[in-house]
User: Fold these one by one.
Assistant:
Number 1:
Amino acid sequence: MNNFLNITELFRLAFDSLGKNRVRTVLSIVGIVIGISTLMLVLGISNAAEGTIKDQLASFGTDTVYVETKVPNASASASGAARGQGIQITTMKVADVNAAKKLPGVKDAYGTAIGQEKVIYRDNTKRGLVYGATAGFVRIDQTKIAEGRFFSQAEDDSIAKVAVIGPNVQTDLFGTEDPVGKYIRIRNVSFKVIGVTAKRGAALFANYDDNVYIPLKTQQKLLLGYDYLPYFVVQVQNADDMDEVASELTSLLRRQHNITSNDTKKDDFEVQTSQESLATIGVVFGAVSLLFGAIASISLIVGGVGVMNIMYVSVTERVREIGLRKAVGARRRDILLQFLLESLVITLLGGIIGIIVGTLLTTLISFGASFAGFALDMSLSPTGLLLGLGVTTFFGVVFGFGPARKAAGLQPIVALRSD
């Protein structure tokens, strides 16, 4: 009971001391608030981005295998950078997709080629992504058709000039007019609209509702002028057999591309299952969260240093008070605990306010993203909130210990003689 009363008294003394220097206390708290709210914001954005991408991949199905081109003898990152600089791998063809469909355990497959184009209807123009795809796209990608229909394999084989448009394309080009049966122009080629996809929304910086889908061979022959594919997708019959299908697919593509070596570095393609993609995303965003969390922690460290400096000033100003307390029986640990509690009160108040501010900011960003059509759930997890409080407590002890130790080490006679 006595210990409880002592701690209660020390808390009262801490609040009284901080109340006497309100401006200084507020400035100390602001530094912690900025650090914690920044940390909460970074964690919220990282978790939201990771969750959004994983949800989008899951929406394509958890029974898919992705095959994309790769620069031989290059790592995944180097290959991506090389392709970003304009290096094209032209060995992947529709024949690879058709051969993949014949593998045991494969249910379906589709190939695609993508280009950004202006889509025109009368005097209305909209820029968006034009997806050239084989007929299996609508089944594997889980794209829903709201009006009309999707194109058939026969239309792809015959290089038919037909198109399926997203709901935003419908609104921007046709308004309230029924688009099915009308003609749009892409690069001066007329396409008959045969369907409209159901509203799907956006993922990060891409909005599916802005897309236009046309047969793959039509895209290659009439718009792009090449016959190779950047990637294709395979759907397996049983998700439990996905690794086996991926292995068979790798062997098939090596035969198709005349690659005799079993060294994966020689491959001009990369095979990845949907589970592997999800695991890779988790690793990448874990590293990103750690990096940006470390960067955000710099502002928190700056705030903690500010608290420490102010506590040193407080010790200097209260030397006589410390001497008097020691003269009437206060022990070294009582003085140490008093100043540690003052530091903890500052950092905890800053942490609580910072968590509130961070939560409000993440809510506003989520609302703004939702208003703009992007699904970005930035709700903070209880783990993140506990982490924020834990960090502030840690910083309160670390940055408050030096000043508290200095105060506890003052000799009563020297302190009482101080001016």
Number 2:
Amino acid sequence: MEVNRQLSENARNDLILVEEAKKGNEKAFAALMNRYRDSIYFMLLKMVNNPSDAEDLTIEAFGKAFRSIDTYVPRFAFSTWLFMIASNNCIDFIRKKQASPVPLDQWQDGFENPAVNLQSDMPDPEEALITDQKIATLRKVVNQLKSPYREIIELRFYKEYSYEEISAELKIPLGTVKAQLFRAKSLLYNIFKKTDNR
């Protein structure tokens, strides 16, 4: 293992956890997440200015980092690598959100004919059918997950429980809820990748 000798003591401690995480040690994953969750969250909150988005992006960042943890090389601190993944993921999220769906020429036409820009929020029948099919597919995939991952996904995304409510419902610590949630998302991602249902 090629280690940068100029790494701080904290960064060297992280390396021990990273090596354990690479072996699939869930306690090491949880320890890394507990160590950096708050600082990642507050960095993302500054970027998106929305607590709910920042929370979801934090979970996504850890999910992406832990899925590709084998690619991390200790020439620089694990925290640097993690923050880079989190900020790049957030930038992608902001770009998608800011993409303007209305071309400029249509926008200008709207001044002469205000009806041009009026659109119903209701999906058309075809969109509704596609959405129903996607939901049915997602439910099938979620049902393939083992306990406790299935319950956590159902509580978070079907019943829209907060992390605190899930913790109380399943009688597990908040850190465990978050660690198991990104593990569940990672498992879902892998199932979708295998079945081409992205």
